[in-house]
């Protein structure tokens, strides 16, 4: 019997939500996504020891202080991403600093620097996705970057409004966060949800239906899963980025995996929505879950980015 992971790979591009080099080798995904949290975990693993040593040795030739720690942390993130490009055949997502999420110009500048750092290592931009938080400012940065041939992964998607704005900006890919939406509703409503009733699953399906109805090319990649059931409920989505633990669960499970999403399965016909800045900000304001989870997500990524920089500073010392 074919595992559910193999069946999923036949209908969806499977992406590893990890910077763990050994885990990515084991599950053979097409793409890989990283963020400050995952990079922080990766640099603590044995498989990344050489990358850490190289970055720290290089950093000690650059001087000392907070500015050097930031540069070395950036080098580490690029080193992890570069190592992942030797394992996966597709794209590796690397995130722009979370503390730039409300600064369009700074986000553009940092994204260009990330691409330049990869290109200096001989890795072409068509192997990289720049991850940017889907604030209004981040989305406008992605609009500029896409026009320059720098493909973007708009992350921390919690609403259709964000998804529409990202599509209007020509984003290559969006990452709707399934599990974090579920977390909010479980806390707010005080009960569990089955996978088919899961608010995070429903949110991704709504975005998928809107995109397919209106011929939008932006890739929908479900992310932040809490269970194998959530992954199965979105089988057939353009892409799904899944943690090693859940990939392992799918690899060990047999039985038929039913396709849940496909362009021909779209039955709803959502109307086209014009998403200018005023409409975006008001719609987000009216959506407590999306507003809270976007802000929380940025804070958490910024916290882990600071932790990574502190770790680097300690090693440099």
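^ structure tokens above, recovered residues below v
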């Amino acid at each position: 019997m074919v595992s559910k992971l193999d069946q999923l790979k036949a209908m969806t591009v499977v992406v590893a939500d990890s910077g763990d080099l050994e885990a990515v080798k084991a599950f053979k995904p097409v793409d890989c996504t990283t963020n400050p949290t995952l990079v922080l975990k990766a640099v603590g693993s044995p498989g990344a020891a050489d990358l850490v040593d190289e970055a720290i040795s290089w950093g000690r030739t650059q001087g000392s202080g907070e500015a050097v720690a930031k540069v070395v942390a950036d080098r580490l993130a690029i080193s992890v991403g570069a190592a992942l490009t030797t394992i996966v055949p597709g794209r590796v997502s690397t995130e722009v600093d979370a503390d730039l999420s409300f600064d369009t110009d700074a986000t553009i500048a940092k994204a260009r620097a990330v691409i330049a750092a990869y290109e200096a290592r001989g890795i072409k931009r068509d192997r990289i996705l720049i991850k940017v938080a889907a604030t209004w400012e981040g989305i406008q940065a992605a609009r500029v970057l896409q026009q320059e041939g720098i493909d973007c992964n708009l992350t921390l998607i919690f609403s259709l409004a964000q998804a529409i704005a990202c599509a209007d900006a020509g984003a290559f890919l969006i990452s709707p966060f399934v599990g974090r939406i579920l977390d909010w509703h479980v806390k707010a409503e005080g009960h569990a949800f089955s996978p088919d009733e899961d608010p995070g699953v429903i949110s991704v399906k709504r975005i998928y239906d809107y995109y397919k109805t209106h011929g939008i090319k932006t890739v929908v990649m479900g992310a932040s899963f809490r269970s194998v059931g959530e992954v199965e409920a979105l089988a057939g989505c353009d892409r799904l980025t899944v943690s090693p633990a859940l990939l392992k669960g799918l690899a060990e499970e047999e039985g038929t995996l039913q396709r849940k999403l496909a362009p021909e399965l779209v039955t709803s016909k959502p109307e086209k929505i014009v998403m200018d800045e005023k409409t975006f900000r008001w719609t987000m304001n009216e959506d407590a879950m999306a507003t809270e989870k976007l802000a929380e997500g940025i804070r958490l990524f910024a916290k882990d980015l600071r932790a990574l920089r502190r770790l680097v500073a300690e090693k440099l010392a």
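The chain has a mean pLDDT of 94.
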